[in-house]
Design goal:
This protein is mostly helical. The chain is built from 5 helices and 1 strand. The longest helix is centred in the N-terminal third of the chain and has 32 residues.
Length: about 150
Amino acid sequence: MDGVEEGRVPDHDRRAAMKILNFILRLVLGGIFLYAGAIKIVNPAAFATGIGNYRLLAHEWLNLLAITLPWIEVIAAALLIAGVWKRASALLIALMLVVFLVAIGQAVARNLNIDCGCFGTVAGRKVGLMGLGEDLAMLAGALWLTWRERD
């Protein structure tokens, strides 16, 4: 053999595989957040109503959040996809996902029968364990990129 132990993947092959995995993960996670943010930008009033349904924020904060959060999602997603500030954008997405998990988790715990608002009014998905699972999976991906991606 050429200096590689039998059954062991050479480091350069592992690094190449890691780069491909990180690239795919950046595209998927970035694509989801780009789409979700863009849908909300189009109709901020509907998104403000969706946020209000969670009953977590004072009414005065709903419009500000409905206008700013989608742009934060889109910018973080675009940076992640473009490969600019990869760790910072992945960390920002991870932080948003933690907030989303808390919001959805409390809605599930309080047995609120509301749409999650994750994709504006398009998906019309109710809050529930499935949404928590999806957000946890995305959080794992965002944390992986935060830890393993190099800027």
